């Protein structure tokens, strides 16, 4: 591997991201719906809290939601990206759209800045007006994200050009 490109990434656990997105979504609901939704988030938190105490066999047999097994989270948590990138001596390019509602500038992009502040070869770039897919943000809200993702678009040309230039410079 010659380097690492982080596209709208996070150093948080998937559990943290999911719970934060659910909390953000609840804020967009009417007050009457918030209490019901909050109970669902608390149930999900309870399930996430139990993962670390599960054996591998238990995790492989426990469905958390939909068709997602606890094992997916248990295994992923054994390889924290934060540890990996902080030890890496390879060049790193971290990119994110500033209208991304899946990951945040504060909790994700800036956290990478902190984690990698002493890295010898890291580049960070925020793209104005782009969403998580590096396409033009149309709605820019979590509640409308699936409608936005279904609008036919292409990845912003500047993102592709910057990635190509970065790769060719290494």
UniProtKB/TrEMBL annotation:
Superkingdom of this protein's organism: Bacteria
Domain named Dienelactone hydrolase: residues: 53-136
Stored Gene3D superfamilies: alpha/beta hydrolase
Signal peptide boundaries: none
Pfam families linked to this entry: DLH (PF01738)
Keywords associated with the record: Hydrolase
A molecular function GO annotation: hydrolase activity
Name of the protein in question: Dienelactone hydrolase family protein
Species name: Paenibacillus aestuarii
